[in-house]
Design a protein that fits this description.
Blueprint lengths: L3 E2 L4 E5 L5 H10 L1 H5 L11 H14 L7 E6 L2 E12 L4 E8 L8 H16 L4 E7 L3 H9 L3 E12 L2 E11 L7
Parallel strand pairs: 5-6
Antiparallel strand pairs: 1-2, 2-3, 3-4, 4-5, 6-8, 7-8
Amino acid sequence: MARLIVNEDIILAPVSMEDVEDIFSTIDRERKYLGRWLPFVDFTMEISDTRRFVETAMVASTGPADIVYAIRFQGRFAGLIGYKFTDTANRKTEIGYWISERFQGKGIITRSVRAMIHQAFHCWNFHRIQINVATGNQRSKRIPKKLNFTFEGIARDAELLSSGFNDIEMYSLLKSEWNEG
């Protein structure tokens, strides 16, 4: 799978074994911050946990499926973004993402999601993209809103976080609604 060049500062590269240390050290360093919204943080206790995740992600990243990209901002690891729960028969996928706290507020995720939308709609001819966001995660919720996704509703108690079950807001975008601008 080829990398996506978002702009001169942001590159999305398919996750590889070279990313294991960066991913684990970011999660470990920002455990409290990331764990507030991401259920996998509680299960990522050793570098071997991250190594297994990356191995699994690399197997899945052979086409328009559940590809995971490492986000590189000015050459430094900033987070992960990827397609999840891809259903090629129905031409739909979900985009999930997380970014290190120190890289937030730079438009990295918005630009990265926009590049992935373009890839999904124009390279793979998908029809629908979904983004799910924890109801209290205001920063993450801004992404689908900025990109003109439609709010579809709330899935109650849909995700188990360390603080307990959390509601998820569901947003979608159809190819016919996508405006590259």
